[in-house]
Specification:
Blueprint: E1 12-18, E2 21-28, H1 33-43, E3 54-61, E4 64-70, H2 76-85, H3 93-103, H4 117-131, H5 133-138, E5 142-148, E6 151-158, H6 161-172, E7 181-184, H7 190-199, E8 203-206, H8 212-221, E9 224-229, E10 232-237, E11 243-244
Parallel strand pairs: 1-4, 7-8, 8-9
Antiparallel strand pairs: 1-2, 3-4, 5-6, 5-7, 9-10, 10-11
Helix pairs in contact: 1-6, 1-7, 6-7, 7-8
């Protein structure tokens, strides 16, 4: 059988540029790109507010897409820190140490999760599955959704789980997210915990399991971290840790 490519998702090189400096090059689905840039900047701690990212432009190139934005001058130091850290993999000892420290850095503390979320998360998972338009077309997409006591509020999809979360964070803007949580379709890694913490989101759920590093990080910053398993909710951080109910 020959596979048909018409329904497969697009995956394009996306360069995220702030104040003229490239902060990341990602392979991502070429949709919701202003939200991707804004959410990346917030989730990585480059800025603390969504409205710090302005003048966003999406510029197509033959080999990919450049997404440009401006941030206040006093936040530009965070770009320089990321640039120094990125040198590590090519063998610079000092920069390598800085890269490791940055990867494992503790994000800001978050407040306690809304207790009502545990009662609504299964509904949110169902709604996430129902509303994943691109996944239904391609069967090859991740999703991140924001929900609160009312249910699923919004979601974003991407071929990459990190990109999906960045797009979600960017789409939420500077609304109050402290009463809700994020539900994802993917394994919960330490960087997803860090992104949610920088965005002020106190709860992170998934239909998959977390890594040990993600659990450690979530406990340190006060975040609820939970797997929505077929036989119950497994809390690894927050509520009664490492319990099923």
């Amino acid at each position: 059988m020959i596979g048909q490519t018409g329904t497969l998702p697009d995956e394009v090189a996306i360069a995220l540029v702030l104040n003229g400096s490239t902060v990341a090059v990602l392979m991502a689905t070429p949709r919701d790109l202003p939200a991707l840039l804004c959410g990346f900047a917030v989730g990585e701690g480059i800025v603390t507010r969504h409205d710090h990212v302005s003048a966003i432009e999406v510029i197509p190139h033959p080999n990919g897409i450049e997404v440009r934005g401006r941030i206040p001058a006093d936040r530009a130091a965070a770009i320089d820190a990321r640039r120094r850290a990125s040198v590590g993999p090519v063998g610079c000892g000092l920069c390598g140490i800085e890269s490791l420290d940055m990867a494992m850095a503790e994000p800001p503390k978050v407040g306690p999760a809304n207790p009502a979320l545990a009662c609504r998360v299964r509904d949110a998972v169902t709604a996430l599955d129902t509303r994943q338009v691109m996944r239904k077309q391609s069967h090859a997409m991740h999703a991140a959704g924001y929900f609160d006591a009312r249910g699923l509020v919004t979601l974003r999809e991407d071929v990459g789980r990190h990109n999906a979360l960045d797009k979600l964070i960017g789409a939420m803007g500077d609304t109050d997210v402290t009463c809700g949580g994020v539900v994802m379709t993917a394994r919960l890694s330490i960087d997803l915990v860090q992104k949610c913490a920088h965005a002020g989101i106190p709860a992170l759920y998934s239909v998959s399991r977390p890594t040990k590093a993600a659990v450690t990080q979530a406990r340190k910053c006060g975040m609820s971290l939970c797997t929505v398993a077929p036989d119950g909710l497994i809390f690894y951080a927050g509520k009664d840790e490492e319990t099923t109910f």
